[in-house]
Amino acid sequence: MTVSASSARRDAETAIPIRSDASRAAHHGLVGHAPTENAPPGPATAGHFQMDKGTIDLRRGGRGLGGAYVYDGPPLVTGWHRHDLHQIEYAVSGVIEVETAAAHYLLPPQQAAWIPAGLQHSATMNSSVRSVAVLFDPALIARPGDRARIIAVPPLIREMMIYAQRWPITHARPDPVVDGFFRTLGHLVDEALDQEAPLDLPTPADPLLAAAAAHTRRNLASATAMQVSRAVGVSERTLRRQFQAELHMSWRDYLTRARLLRAMALLAGPGPSVLEVSTAVGFDSASSFARAFTRHCGESPSDYRRRVTTRF
Q: pTM of the full predicted structure?
């Protein structure tokens, strides 16, 4: 079966098909705005963000330097949107997926997603998500970058983010004590941005390659290079060459990373055992799954599950 460029673009959608509630999205402000555009534009220039009509004013006219937002609710797909502030979102429980024009990111519990001001993105809240986001005036972060990142969260930043809940972003007003708190937290976050975790899948720009990547993700348990190449109408050799040329990784490496990211999402919730997860994402045995998971994540699947399902 071959695909056209238009159908390839449809296949390239990576959000999990869960319920999307636009009215709830509009109500929640930070991660809950209805789509502002159908497709993501290029990112704003780092350090020189400018407001426009497609940007969400999270402070709603306020001028405080920072504030927090808490999400504790059912599954939700936000649609494409961008903020006027830098955002760091810490996943307390549940799994959040963030998509930008460049990549698809998995935010597991007890790590954080960094989203610079002006970056068009979409978020998918899987299962029961509880997260704490802190928003910063662009002036507070010296090196925001122009892309999303998943970062490790040191205990000090985690505790300060939780403490920041007392200052909702929707009521951000200038205050010397509060602004001083967010200046300090902003400095710590700026330093932590170098501690990036490999929890993303690059998004191909070529429509046919994007369709091949989407087909791979939809068939993690059974995908082979031959099967994927037939599905998108190219030779297996062409498929492997294009993955290496555009994404700088082999198709096999892409498949393995996609399997591990899906496994991390499954392990973060209740239900399937480690063996069931390994089978669901396509590993031949629990031992091969454990080896690959430990090599990629730095801990065994069982240790990861214990860590991310422990609430504090």
A: 0.67
